[in-house]
Amino acid sequence: MRYFEKVSFEQFSKATNLSKEEYNKYNLPKRSTKHSAGYDFEALSNFSIKPGEILKIPTGIKVNMEDDEVLMIFIRSSLGVKNNLRMCNQVGIIDSDYYNNEDNEGHIFVCIQNEGTEVKEFKQGDKIVQGIFTKFLTVSNEEEINNHRQGGFGSTN
Question: For the chain, which residues make up each domain, given as ranges?
């Protein structure tokens, strides 16, 4: 079973300067059409990205999924093509064990860079990235792995 949920208000408050009212009104990611692969993540508040600037943006979202699944995060294609915006790591990879980690509850952040020549303005509720679930495979002769995720963003080195 896989599902999105909001991070706690405590975690939300650590990552944003937004109120309880703002926390209560943002949306969980959803697909725009019946056959869309991607779940659209929305901006929590208004913000802008200047040319050459990189922003680490909180989504307020965490995701629970099966052990053999991954959520891949991509910039929305229209933002890449029309505005020359890129995810700094090209594709965000959210592993199943990121959920409820001790550092940040599994709060998903996205890092976006403006490689264009104009400031890009976002309004609260604008769709900024999309997440796609997929299964993954492992090699059959892999040694047993006993390590467990201890932290959040970038914690597995």
Answer: 3-135
